[in-house]
Design a protein that fits this description.
The protein is of the alpha/beta class. About 30% of the residues lie in helices and about 20% in strands. The protein has two domains: about 30-230, L-asparaginase, N-terminal domain (Rossmann fold, 3-Layer(aba) Sandwich); about 245-355, Rossmann fold. The protein contains ten helices and 14 strands. It starts with a helix and ends with a helix. Keywords: Hydrolase, Signal. This is Glutaminase-asparaginase. Pfam families: Asparaginase, Asparaginase_C.
């Protein structure tokens, strides 16, 4: 009888020890919050062969997480739905709301990293914005997919798994906001979308990715050189609105219509998305001079998608009191200009900021 009691006691101790070990293992895993905003990664198609024709932003974030059970082996994950939209519908108000929520979460001691599921159309803008305004070294990763989860060869599940792995890693800390897609880790500053609808390798950085995710391992090969997150003068907790900045795309036979419309709508700056080195057509030069005379900043960018716009190279920027981008494309220049204008409206200071970041 005594022997049976000892056996029972031993069994209870073994079970208790097993539970304690399981709880300890759970505690060792990083805590990652996955914020859902919609996009293709939350999309569904009518058929498994629909890779480009589908409805985006219909699957809630908890179901996206549940579809990748392997995630539970690498992190303690919880989901939070903040938006359910296609990313083409992101606006400044939503950008600010997202940034402030991410900032709140990063301050919590039980949060080690953040993943944001996002439509691919404007991932680069959201990532660049967060890269400039968040005041934490904890990893923040923006992730999406080019194919809906219902498609053959869907890329969202692995992209999400990799994003959680990166967000929960110590190696990713202090590297700014990252974009993880197609096994690659990109800086939010550099990355841009290069194919509109179906290529899973669409995201590119002009200087290459920071690294890769290979068989559950993070492999970094370079670091961001420009200031980000804790190194910038922009703080999401202190920004409640953004000044209006618009983009005027240039082409042969371009007219002044867009510039006039933007000025009349209250733009504080216009990104001149010019040909070549931010070139300005002869009929547009006086238009931009007029725009600047009304107190609206003129910032020259290039529609080519890469390369540095040289100050006083194509136009006498000093004479006209214009600003040039560094290597930012127009959509990223717009984000930086909005933030810069919360600090200053002095042209020389704006130019320094464009060159700095």
């Amino acid at each position: 009888m005594q022997h049976a009691k000892f056996k029972q006691l031993g069994a209870v101790m073994i079970i208790s020890a097993a539970f304690a070990f399981s709880a300890q293992a759970q505690d060792k895993k990083p805590n990652v919050v996955v914020i859902g905003t919609g996009g293709t990664i939350a999309g569904a198609g009518a058929s498994s062969v629909n890779t480009a024709a589908y409805q985006s932003a219909v699957v809630p974030v908890d179901k996206i997480i549940a579809a990748v059970p392997e995630i539970s082996k690498i992190a303690n994950v919880r989901g939070e739905q903040i938006f359910q939209i296609g990313s083409e519908s992101f606006n400044d108000e939503r950008l600010l709301k997202l940034g402030k929520r991410v900032s709140e979460l990063l301050k919590q001691s039980d949060v080690d990293g953040i993943v944001i599921t996002h439509g691919t159309d404007t991932i680069e803008e959201t990532a660049y914005f967060l890269n400039l305004v968040l005041k934490s070294e904890k990893p923040v990763v923006v992730v999406g997919s080019m194919r809906p989860g219902t498609a053959l060869g869907a890329d969202g599940a692995l992209n999400l798994y990799d994003a959680v792995l990166v967000a929960g890693s110590k190696e990713a800390a202090g590297k700014g906001t990252l974009v993880v897609m197609n096994d690659e880790i990109h800086s939010g500053r550099d990355v841009t979308k290069s194919n509109n609808s179906f290529k899973v390798e669409t995201f590119r950085s002009p200087y290459g990715p920071l690294g890769y995710v290979v068989e559950n391992k993070l492999m970094f090969y370079r670091l961001p050189a420009r200031p980000h997150t804790t190194q910038t003068e922009f703080d999401i907790d202190q920004i409640n609105s953004l000044p209006r900045v618009d983009i005027a795309y240039n082409y042969g036979n371009v007219s002044r219509a867009a510039y006039d419309a933007f000025v009349n709508a209250g733009a504080k700056a216009i990104i001149h998305d010019g040909t070549g080195n931010g070139s300005v057509a002869e009929q547009i030069v006086p238009v931009l001079q007029e725009v600047r005379s009304k107190g609206v900043q003129v910032i020259r960018a290039t529609r080519t998608g890469s390369g540095v716009v040289i100050r006083n190279g194509e136009q006498p920027d000093d004479k006209y009191d214009w600003v040039v981008t560094d290597d930012q494309n127009a959509q990223k220049a717009r984000i930086l200009a909005e933030l810069a204008l919360t600090k200053t409206n002095d042209t020389k200071e704006l130019q320094k900021i464009m060159w700095k970041y």
